[in-house]
Write a structure and sequence with these properties.
about 200 residues; mainly beta; 2 helices; elongated
């Protein structure tokens, strides 16, 4: 928990600094495919064997700086939905989760050609659970704790994301990213989630 607050404090300080010195901004509306997998020393074999597929949709805003060519700050807000078959004939037959993700990325872009801009990014991602049976107790075996193996997953978590972008004619941007789970999804147990994404963003 202390690590989460430290990351959030650093992100808040970065936002204040960016707003004070940004010279121009640009909006993005994005949508794409997303896949979630689970791991960790205390993660149940059940969760490890069930990756969830779904989608993300949302907006982001890129802040440019006149003194640092190619370097930008790119916060955003995205809705994510993931599901997968539980593998059992009993209810619930599907694993479901939905959440809001708030990435706070630092990005560096460079021109490959007059109509083609490449970029790489990295930064923390705050996830806030909004629905799904993974957040309900006694639904699935989530961890190896014999006393409480069906503990629900926490609805707030931190990941660290990184990825690459390719913008075409300053109109469409292709994005590929991966976010590593930093915070624990089950209290005092080593259970994390990682997210792979690929999609497009429309620039305006």
């Amino acid at each position: 928990m202390k690590k989460i607050f430290a990351i959030l404090f650093a992100a808040a300080a970065l936002c204040v600094s960016v707003n004070a010195s940004a010279q121009s901004t640009e909006w993005r509306a994005g949508i794409g495919y997303a896949s979630v997998s689970f791991n960790g020393d205390d993660c149940s074999s059940y969760l490890k064997e069930h990756s969830l597929s779904g989608f993300y949709i949302g907006i982001s805003k890129e802040f440019y700086f006149s003194t640092m060519a190619g370097l930008t700050f790119e916060p955003g807000v995205f809705f994510n939905y993931h599901s997968g078959k539980s593998g059992y004939n009993t209810d619930p037959k599907f694993i479901k989760m939905s959440y809001l993700s708030v990435p706070l990325n630092i990005k560096y872009s460079f021109e490959a050609s007059p109509e083609f801009l490449l970029g790489i990014y990295t930064g923390p991602v705050l996830n806030i659970g909004t629905g799904g049976n993974v957040y309900s107790k006694d639904k699935f075996i989530t961890n190896t704790d014999i006393a409480d193996p069906m503990h629900k997953l926490t609805q707030m978590g931190i990941q660290w994301g990184f990825g690459a972008t390719a913008a075409i004619s300053e109109a469409i941007q292709i994005r590929v990213g991966y976010a590593l789970g930093l915070s624990r999804l089950v209290k005092e147990r080593d259970v994390h989630n990682n997210t792979f994404t690929v999609g497009v963003a429309f620039m305006f």
